[in-house]
Amino acid sequence: MNEPQAARPTQHASERALEDLDHNAIEPPPVPRREIPEGAGRVVFVGAGPGAPDLVSLRGARVIETADIIIWASSLVHPDMVARHKAGAELIDSASIPLEDLEPLYTRARDEGLVVARVHTGDPSIYGATAEQRDLCRRIGIDFETIPGISAFSAAAARMDVEITVPEVSQSLVLTRLEGGRTPMPDGETVASFARHGATMAIYLSAARNKALQDALLEGGYLPETPCIIGYAVSWPEEIMFRCDLAHLSETMRNHKLWKHAVVLVGPALAEGPIKTRSHLYHPGFRHEYRGADAQAHADLKAHGTRGVYDQNPTNSDTKDNS
């Protein structure tokens, strides 16, 4: 009897089509890496991460350790993050100054060839107010670069040991904030409209209006039993984490006086307990360019998907019957 042969990876039609293209004719061209001359003044936007000083990247830590000027918001960035500065570095707390007060500092750095570490909480690209600072750098002619950081949503998911993109449950993540606050939201960007997708959501800057947030999520279609994670001061010494369902989101936040510094994760992917699906990537029936597939497992995967195929409790016949 012939044993089933492992399926071999095949080249996708789109890959073959790309090989046939004249890549020299494709526009736009790749964006080159910006090279900053040695000794030139520059501003480095450093993502400090959610709070814990050891969650900053090695690259970010090196910039903070060697910078001539460090600008940071004491209300958002852990003081130990900037305590690693070199002797003689100038430390400036930006918590109480507007953008206009940064221009003289950036101009001096340009003229004197100084390195400014502009330390931002989380990741500078998410609610970092860095776009206008980059515009300022361009206007006055000083080089700049950005070092990414760990955002609070990622730290909260890690702290609670959850995956926010569980196969066949949620493969999308929406980062947003509740509309109607002091800072206007663009037309069409509402929590309720995003909630209609049923994906995982990470909601920032909305803790003070937690009842309105809960109502908007329910209006958008999340069920009252939808799992929620609340992270307050994630990775700081005073960190508090909560699990609740959506029906009790506002009550939980009000009872614990969580008015700020909180991120809320919402979505079915956050449910506790064993998952009922598995990633195709490591399934024996899934083939890709680095690995073939077992023929029988490949047939089963095509016929049934992963629901019920991956059961962390093999004695649970109910799960298998649902495949």
TrEMBL record:
Residue ranges annotated for the Tetrapyrrole methylase domain, each copy included: 42-249
Superkingdom, taxonomy of origin: Bacteria
Disordered: annotated span: 1-36
Xref: InterPro entries: 4pyrrol_Mease, 4pyrrol_Methylase_sf, 4pyrrole_Mease_sub1, 4pyrrole_Mease_sub2, Cbl_synth_CobM/CibF, Siro_Cobalamin_biosynth
Gene Ontology BP term (one): methylation
Gene3D superfamilies, per database record: Cobalt-precorrin-4 Transmethylase, Domain 1, Methyltransferase, Cobalt-precorrin-4 Transmethylase, Domain 2
GO molecular function, one term: precorrin-4 C11-methyltransferase activity
Composition bias, Basic and acidic residues: 13-25
Keywords: Cobalamin biosynthesis, Methyltransferase, S-adenosyl-L-methionine, Transferase
Family classification: Belongs to the precorrin methyltransferase family.
NCBIfam families: cobM_cbiF
Protein name, UniProt field: Precorrin-4 C(11)-methyltransferase
